[in-house]
Design goal:
The protein is an all-alpha fold. It has 32 helices and no strands. The longest helix is centred in the C-terminal third of the chain and has 25 residues. The radius of gyration is 30 Å and the shape is elongated. The two termini are 25 Å apart.
Length: 496
């Protein structure tokens, strides 16, 4: 049986920046205070007006008036600022923001134009903010921003000397990349990832780094995954974030990104391992935050799922990795037990030495048998069976004899009783076939009967496998037939 690498995915987030969020950031001294852009306004009258308008509560009934202000034929800067602030505030409302109305009124091109006004940084900021919130809408609304040159516009904003404007560029790019794979690809082809990576490597601003990691993570995920060559330069950033950050959101976003970046062939996996992030992943496996621990467990499994067995050695060389994984099998959450079994099955799919790291401890072996037979969730039982089946296939004779002492043959015969789960049946039959094949080796060496046939039959294995030759699932039928042909070839009546 070939070890099967299973595909998982997660949800990509989009963000709309509300007025309430910014008010909270102001109160805590965050850096989205508009202070930098506001301080750049030299005209005293304009500064006074902007300050007043920032305090004003705009209503949707004023929408058309505000549109007229930004499009005033005199290009009056006071009116432009007034209209842009008002429209941004309305589009930032937490409920019922008229995003589609703004698109229908063809405001996106005007906003894009304002984002290029380096001579008017506050106008630039307000326009970028409004566009960010439009891009947080549905795919059609996001597409409206892209069609008018939104992506290169936002990439350019990442180079602004005003950090609030940079932050808006980050949010907008994250929303675009988070909408769908098509838009993510367009952002990658516009060099968004490279510019963002350079920014995150140099910034000392906490908010820039936090939101940048989120946006960068959105650029690396989604199915199908992006070409690794387009995203691999983000690896050191995520690795450093996981190693040094204490912020749970940063750790979560970095963890999911590392999971997606690890989903590839052995050369790709090696690039991830070369960052030195694996010990940090192991260190954080028991993080109490499920949104962090789950992607890290998944990542660990992927890092051992390639064709290069030395990569399994790299993981096993990390202190306490096996005890940590087995501790996670006690976790109350199904997803944790399931993903942990997946990681363990990657180990037992290596070679006999790797399998021994998992099954040589009686407590570990008993735990896996218990999960395979008794866990209340089918997904966990199936994954635990994978761990044991891979071990049976890869183990040597001495290891097999050890495992059989703890009832593994009985366990696998019992697992044949649930005929509803075809995939699990196939795995179990392959495990039983591995036991009987190793029994053949012993019989050949000692010139005796297969020592495991008798127990296999007494545990009902033969009768159950015979019946499974009539199973509706082709793979189950073929696995059952293979076992019967391999060990009962002289008894033709069993194959009729």
């Amino acid at each position: 049986m070939k070890f099967e690498k299973k595909k998982r995915d997660d949800t990509i987030r989009k963000i709309r920046i509300s007025n309430l969020q910014i008010d909270k950031q102001r109160q805590v001294g965050g850096f989205s205070t508009l202070s930098g852009a506001f301080d750049s306004v030299e005209n005293i009258e304009l500064r006074k007006c902007i300050n007043e308008w920032l305090q004003k509560q705009f209503k949707q009934e004023e929408f058309l008036e505000l549109v007229g202000a930004i499009n005033n034929p005199e290009n009056d800067r006071l009116k432009q600022h007034y209209g842009m602030i008002g429209l941004r505030k309305i589009l930032s409302q937490e409920k019922g923001a008229p995003i589609q109305h703004a698109v229908d009124m063809n405001l996106v091109p005007r906003f894009i134009e304002f984002t290029q006004r380096k001579d008017e940084p506050h106008l630039q900021l307000e326009a970028a903010w409004a566009l960010t919130n439009i891009a947080s809408g549905d795919s059609k609304q996001t597409e409206a921003v892209i069609e008018h040159g939104g992506i290169p516009c936002f990439v350019n904003l990442l180079g602004s000397p005003k950090m609030e404007i940079v932050e808006q560029g980050i949010w907008a790019l994250g929303n675009i990349a988070g909408d769908c794979n098509k838009f993510r690809q367009m952002a990658l082809e516009s060099n968004a990832l490279s510019v963002l990576v350079d920014l995150l490597k140099s910034t000392t601003k906490e908010n820039i780094f936090k939101h940048g990691i989120w946006a960068l993570s959105n650029l690396t995920r989604g199915r199908p995954l992006p070409n690794f060559e387009l995203v691999k330069e983000s690896l050191p950033v995520f690795s450093e974030a996981l190693k040094h950050s204490k912020d749970p959101e940063i750790i979560t976003d970095a963890s999911w990104a590392l999971y997606h970046l690890s989903d590839g062939d052995s050369p790709q996996i090696q690039v991830v391992l070369d960052t030195g992030v694996a010990p940090t992943i192991v260190q954080n496996l028991d993080n109490s935050n499920l949104s962090t621990s789950v992607p890290l467990i998944k990542t660990l499994g992927l890092l051992m799922s390639g064709d290069d067995e030395s990569q399994i050695d790299t993981i096993l060389s990390i202190q306490d990795v096996i005890p940590k994984l087995f501790k996670l099998l006690e976790h109350e959450k199904k997803v944790v037990r399931k993903e942990t079994c997946y990681a363990l099955s990657a180990i037992t799919a290596g070679n006999d030495r790797h399998a021994g790291c998992v099954i040589a401890n009686p407590n570990y072996l008993n735990k896996l048998i218990t999960l395979a037979v008794s866990d209340k969730f089918l997904e966990v039982r199936r994954e635990a069976a994978w761990v044991l089946a891979n071990a049976l296939i890869k183990c040597n004779i001495d290891q097999l004899m050890f495992m059989l002492q703890y009832g593994l043959l009985e366990c696998f015969c019992t697992l044949l009783d649930d005929t509803r789960d075809a995939k699990n049946l196939e795995v179990v039959i392959e495990g039983l076939n591995a036991i009987l094949n190793k029994g053949k080796e012993i019989a050949s060496q000692r010139r005796c009967e297969n020592p495991f046939i008798s127990e296999f039959e007494s545990r009902g294995g033969l009768e159950k496998v015979q019946k499974l030759q009539e199973h509706e699932n082709v793979e189950v039928y073929q696995a059952a037939l293979k076992l019967m042909e391999g060990h009962y070839e002289l008894e033709d009546n069993l194959l009729s």
